[in-house]
TrEMBL record:
Provenance organism: Candidatus Iainarchaeum sp
Pfam families named in the record: N6_N4_Mtase
Stated name of the protein: Site-specific DNA-methyltransferase
Organism ancestry: Archaea, Candidatus Iainarchaeota, Candidatus Iainarchaeia, Candidatus Iainarchaeales, Candidatus Iainarchaeaceae
PROSITE patterns per record: N6_MTASE
Family indicated by similarity: Belongs to the N(4)/N(6)-methyltransferase family.
Amino acid sequence: MPALNWIGKEQVVNHDKEVPFRLLKKVKSISVGENSQNLIIHGDNLEALKALMPYYCNKIKCIYIDPPYNTGNEGWVYNDNVNSTKIKRWLGKVVGGETEDLCRHDKWLCMMYPRLKLLKDLLKENGAIFVSIDDDEADHARALLDEIFGRQNFVATIIWQKKFSPQSDAKFFSDVHDYILVYSKNITNFRVKLLQRKESTNARYLNLDNDPRGLWMSSDFSVKTYSKKYDYPITTPSGKIVKATKGRCWATSKERFKEFVKDNRIWFGKNLNGVPRLKRFLSEVKEGIVPTTIWFYQEVGHNQEARQELKKIFRGKELLFDNPKPVRLIKRIIQLATDSDDLILDSFVGSGTTGQAVLELNKEDSGNRKFILVELEDAVAKNITAERIKRVIKSEKLDVGFEFCELDRPLFNSEGEIENECVFEQLATYIYFTETQTNIDKKQINKSYIGLSPDEINEYYLIFKEKHKNKLTKEFLKNLKKSTKRKIVYADFCLISQDELDKYNIEFKQIPYEIKRY
Ligand SMILES: C[S@@+](CC[C@H](N)C(=O)[O-])C[C@H]1O[C@@H](n2cnc3c(N)ncnc32)[C@H](O)[C@@H]1O
């Protein structure tokens, strides 16, 4: 398959593996409630996504991202180019001396590549990612997504009408749409939901012949794909003989047509001498409408609506954030791609629209969806993202909360030692993940036992109380599960002989050296 190349690509293709694993530190003063399982993280999403991996790998059902469009506009609240000081510093570190030669498209691609790789790892097998973008980077984004997610997992390019009136100062055409690129993790497992039918659509269903099966609408009984077998004359109940218009034929065979007539499914018009039409009952189509790839502003909102929404929440204060998305737009995405208890992630969250959309949708359908939101800029994360969600919770009187987290130090310091702040559960989660590539089930943790591998071959144990003093002793053997499975035990020291380890089917792994780096 053709692949896109750019300056710096070599340095970033495996960069996701080099990002240090950091712990997350809850900031109580900004958080709301306890154990809500909703998260807002302040920090670079590259490190935030990595920090989430031991907890959420293969767990997210729907990812929505609205990354900087790279329009060249640097004067916004957040930097729309990849020229923000933080990203510039990151590029300098990762790409090195070559950074000087990078054009803004190279930089954008370098920035997106490792982040998209981590996002893919976080997605569930039946999950999907929705990426907002415009013509500045749409072609590059498609090529990147093809490479990372696989072209076979492409679902659709949606066109969202973001404006409704043309801009008279446009140089050529007035641009009134954005794209939303949709990729599944695995197209064979992905399902898109149907859109709820609107009252106005249902109103087109009538019951002109008082059919006991209820409301119906008629549709053309002739088709364009011609078949001689289906081209037969039909006698209407009033005795008139009708044929399909030239070049067309009927939709079914003569025999099937007779069955339809017998079942009162054919409508010949009030006077019983019209061209036959097929009756479709509302009760049969009620489950919903297949979504199309063009989303008009009347259905999902527009830029202006999004600005007004934000202004209303912040009580008319001068606009704090440039280019938020309308809540209705994100709600539509979540509606189509999630069940009522799924996890939704937005790692370029900006003003927090995705969080509000999740909360509103849960309120509407009594759902229990959870969100994880990540924002790079300190002032945006605290004063806009978290503050907006707080205000929505308060004004809607919702019984939910969120944890606001900062990225803490890396789990391993520069000497390869485990950070002093690291607690048992964090290390257990990390070790279980690096051993199994799946997430720990906290309910399984029992003293030093931290879980069984998914293939049920290995049991994992962690002895971790006081740094540098964790010993695998004879005493510990008494706590082992009475099973024949292989037991992998992590500790600082091992005080029992190899013979005895073999007898108990134990493999000792020394902290920190034998902890795999993810
Ligand atoms: C286009 S805005 C998103 C707007 C959002 N959809 C809304 O409705 O408010 C992009 C956001 O991503 C943030 N961002 C940029 N690079 C980031 C990174 N590496 N990690 C986390 N956030 C980042 C920017 O600060 C900005 O707030």
